[in-house]
């Protein structure tokens, strides 16, 4: 969702480096890559439910941090932390599906569970571009907070 509004962010924060603008988008994926390394072992110690709830709260707080960012380093750090927390459902989801459904129907359920994961990268930038054009780049993150808290 954030990628279409990087130009607006760079103008607001007086950043001229296109590399830094690209980094502010891709740092989320770095957090997303390292998240499972932390979350998976913690689920063995504390259980999945505790991590689902704590990562959701942390995701909301770090998304709030991104929305309220006043400079690029702050935005980048909060984007990384948001990616770290946002990796929780993808890390723990297949195990949860496996626990809740019989083996005969598990494939169908996993197909349904995977659909938003596949559609998100396609729909997100389109929605984000409309939201940021109409309301400003910070509203991409306000919208995410509203959607996650529902």
Characterize the biggest β-sheet. Answer: none
Distance linking N and C termini: 18 Å
Low-pLDDT parts are none
Envelope shape? globular
Rg over CA atoms, rounded to whole Å, is 17 Å
> What is the top-level CATH class?
Mainly Alpha
Overall average residue pLDDT: 93
Helix-strand pattern, N to C?
Answer: HHHHHHH
- The helix count comes to 7
CATH fold category name: Growth Hormone, Chain: A
Quaternary status: single chain
Spell out the CATH superfamily. Answer: MFS general substrate transporter like domains
Category by helix and strand content = mainly alpha
Give a count of the beta strands, DSSP E runs of length 2 or more. Answer: 0
**CATH architecture, please?**
Up-down Bundle
Structurally, the number of domains stands at: 1
Q: Level of helix content?
A: over 70%
Quick tags:
150 residues, mainly alpha, Growth Hormone, Chain: A, 7 helices, 86% helix, globular
In brief:
With 150 residues, the chain is mostly helical.
What can you see in these coordinates?
There is one protein chain. This protein is mostly helical. The protein has a single domain (3-149), classed as Growth Hormone, Chain: A, CATH 1.20.1250.20. It is 86% helix and 0% strand. The protein has helices at 6-12, 18-46, 48-67, 72-86, 88-100, 103-135, 138-149. The mean pLDDT is 93.
């Amino acid at each position: 969702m954030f990628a279409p509004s990087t130009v607006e962010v760079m103008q607001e924060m007086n950043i001229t480096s296109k590399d830094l603008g690209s980094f502010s988008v891709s740092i989320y994926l770095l957090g997303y890559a390292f998240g499972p390394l932390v979350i998976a072992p913690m689920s063995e110690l504390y259980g999945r439910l505790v991590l689902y709830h704590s990562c959701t709260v942390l995701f909301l707080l770090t998304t709030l941090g991104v929305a309220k960012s006043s400079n690029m380093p702050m935005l980048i750090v909060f984007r990384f932390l948001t990616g770290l927390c946002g990796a929780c459902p993808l890390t723990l989801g297949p195990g949860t599906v496996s626990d809740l459904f019989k083996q005969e129907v598990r494939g169908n359920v996993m197909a349904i569970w995977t659909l938003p994961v596949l559609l998100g990268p396609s729909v997100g930038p389109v929605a984000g571009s409309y939201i940021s054009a109409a309301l400003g780049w910070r509203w991409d993150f306000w919208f995410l907070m509203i959607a996650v808290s529902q």
